[in-house]
Amino acid sequence: MSIENVDGKPSNLVERGGTRSYTFLRVVQPVFNHSIFTSAVSPAAERIRFILGEEDDSPAPPQLFTELDELLAVDGQEMEWKETARWIKFEEKVEQGGERWSKPHVATLSLHSLFELRTCMEKGSIMLDREASSLPQLVGKCTRKIILEQGGGRTL
């Protein structure tokens, strides 16, 4: 299983000073046969299941490996994809030199970010699995859909 943007294209552009940065989120199901974690169920959950007399024969949910790649160009140099964050169970980020990963930590979201996400989902257009061979073609398809939804059926 893999979730990516259309044709591996970047999802958004951010400019910081002389650095242009595109972000790209990729979720990949691991190909290894054993878990890196000792158990998917906590000991407390196992005790409660034992007390209630329930047997859990269902398969454990698959472990996912998620990484955030950014397309970076510094002062007109050649652009390259760099992995800047990853999640298996906890979040890890690349530290300031780009050489080491931070200690794993629980990823958090601010309340403001959750409200912004809710607003985008309520008022925005959600388009998954769009087929396009170039960024202009993708933008054209997205623009047509937004105009149809918000413009009362007028076409371009």
Q: Could you explain how this protein is built, in words?
A:
With 156 residues, the chain is α+β, with helices and mostly antiparallel strands. Strands 1, 2, 3, 4, 5 and 6 form a six-stranded antiparallel β-sheet that branches. The chain has two domains: 2-108, no CATH class; 109-156, no CATH class. A hairpin with a 2-residue loop joins strand 2 and strand 3. The protein is built from three helices and six strands; from the N terminus they run E-E-E-H-E-E-E-H-H. It has helices at 43-52, 111-123, 135-150, and strands at 2-3, 12-16, 19-28, 65-74, 80-87, 91-93. It starts with a strand and ends in a 6-residue tail after the last helix. This is Solute carrier family 4 member 4. Residues 63-148 form the Band 3 cytoplasmic domain. GO terms for molecular function: monoatomic anion transmembrane transporter activity; sodium:bicarbonate symporter activity; solute:inorganic anion antiporter activity. It holds the Pfam family Band_3_cyto.
Q: What structural category arises from helix and sheet content? A: alpha+beta
**Biggest sheet, open or closed, and with what strands and sense?**
6 strands, antiparallel
Radius of gyration, in angstroms, nearest whole number = 21 Å
Low-confidence stretches: 1-8
Proportion of helical residues: 25-40%
- Intertermini distance: 36 Å
Shape label: extended
Quantity of strands, as a count = 6
Q: Strand fraction band?
A: 15-25%
Task: Provide the succession of SSEs.
Answer: EEEHEEEHH
How many structural domains does the protein architecture include?
A: 2
Overall mean pLDDT stands at 73
Number of helices, where a helix is a run of at least 4 consecutive DSSP H or I residues: 3
